[in-house]
Amino acid sequence: MLTELNLGNNTFKEIPAVVGHLELLKKLYLYSNHISTVSSEVIGSLKNLCVLNLNHNQIQRLPSEIKSLTKLQCLSVAHNRLEDIPAELGHLIELTEVNFTHNCLSALPQEMYHCKLLSKIYLARNQLDTLPEGIQALTKLQVLDVAGNKLSMFPAEFHQLRLKELYCEGNKFVQCDPKPSVLGQEVVSLKELVARFVLHEDRNKSSLIHKTLPNYPNCVTLLAKSCYCTSCLRPILTTWLECVLFINLKVKNKKKSLTVPVRALLCSSKCFNSGDKVYYSVVSQKPHHTLFTVEKC
Ligand SMILES: [Zn+2]
């Protein structure tokens, strides 16, 4: 039975339909063709695929049926025209390596962090201005290549990752150029206050709110976007102020330690001013990424 098929360096405009009948196929190479569309029918039937290589084609989008490839370990779609990645990628829980180098991606689905075995992620030369929050879930991640994007900072808790290789040159990282300033009056909306109360109560498994919350799906959806204050670790729905920490990372592929901006999610000015960490607020992302500190009283 055919388990490996290399159709690279041909002139296919799509994945040949007959490939969809090779249900035992484990490795499929289609690099350097003229493929612009990926048929959902063909992709949906290759349930045993472990390796899929579509490098150097003209693919703009991957079908959501990619979720059928539950055994896929290595997905490579480098040098294409991808504008987004389907959220269904999050179903591919066996994935260890993804390569989306040299595409047109402006965002990534947060669901990508469901692929908890990912150890190598290649995203160089795209249009990413942010990475989704929650990256610390990728505890096996060793190699991250985000060079040549438009990132202004890394997501919160980025420094918890145990990266061996990080490539991040050629981005638009915020610069640490502190300017003293006076902190304005703190106003937290009623919606935010209620959300924080509900999130806090929901942590208590015996609370009334924890038991009744599932009856309010709209609230559950809204609260799913919650995060934790970097300083006090209390749950929050929205951050009080866009803040950043500058963190020294030691990565094996760099001789010197690397100082990178990491997003800090803070609940209040109290947390901004407390502890021994120096948080900076981002005042102007454009055009010069100026930052300033708020002086501590
Ligand atoms: Zn806090």
Automatic annotation (TrEMBL):
Source organism superkingdom: Eukaryota
PROSITE patterns the UniProt entry points to: LRR
Keyword entries, A-Z: Leucine-rich repeat, Repeat
GO CC annotations, alphabetized: cytoplasm
Disease resistance R13L4/SHOC-2-like LRR domain mapped to chain residues: 5-102
UniProt keyword Repeat, yes or no: yes
Name of the protein this chain belongs to: Disease resistance R13L4/SHOC-2-like LRR domain-containing protein
Entries under SUPFAM superfamilies matching the protein: L domain-like
Pfam families xref list: LRR_1, LRR_14
Taxonomic source organism: Knipowitschia caucasica
